[in-house]
Design goal:
62% of the residues lie in helices and 6% in strands. The chain is mostly helical. Strand 1 (92-96) and strand 2 (104-108) form a beta hairpin. The termini are far apart. The model has no long low-confidence stretch (mean pLDDT 93).
Length: 154
């Protein structure tokens, strides 16, 4: 049997069952959403993970590094490097825990709070607004529900 003739390089790739796999579709969507987020956050130079850390610290001041990293699913070595970067930009500060000297608690600085306020505005008026415009409020709510269900079960 002769091998199949190669497709011309200009032809679109055939995706086969890949286009029907939820995990693949989620990853592709995540990449597009993150690209848009990074464009929106370019003036502030914040990644989605950094923004998430700042949001958690705003609502949970004085929590320790392990709690924040575990909540966000960030590995310890990656989290420490991220904290180093945020601390060097004076967005947060690490202090020894008053109850456990082996642990550090995290607090937003005044600059961190101001940066977070600007980031929230950019996210809500640009990034999230584009997603809601694309999906519509009902599909947005449905998608959030479906993603929460997946996150809770896996």
């Amino acid at each position: 049997m002769l091998p199949a003739a190669p497709m011309p390089e200009t032809a679109a790739l055939r995706m086969g069952e890949l286009s029907e796999l939820l995990g693949y579709a989620l990853k592709r969507a995540q990449l597009k959403v993150f690209e848009d987020f990074l464009r929106c956050m370019a003036p502030l130079q914040l990644t989605p993970a950094q923004f998430s850390v700042l949001l958690l610290l705003d609502k949970n001041p004085g929590r320790n590094q392990t709690e924040i990293a575990n909540t966000l699913g960030i590995l310890r070595p990656n989290f420490v490097a991220m904290l180093d970067g945020l601390e060097s930009r004076d967005l947060l500060t690490r202090m020894r825990s008053p109850s456990d000297r082996r642990s550090h608690v995290l607090m937003l600085t005044d600059k961190g709070s101001a940066t977070l306020a600007r980031a929230r505005k950019l996210v809500s008026t640009k990034h999230e607004a584009r997603l809601v415009e694309l999906l519509g409020p009902a599909d947005q709510a449905a998608l959030l529900g479906m993603l929460a269900k997946i996150a809770a079960e896996f």
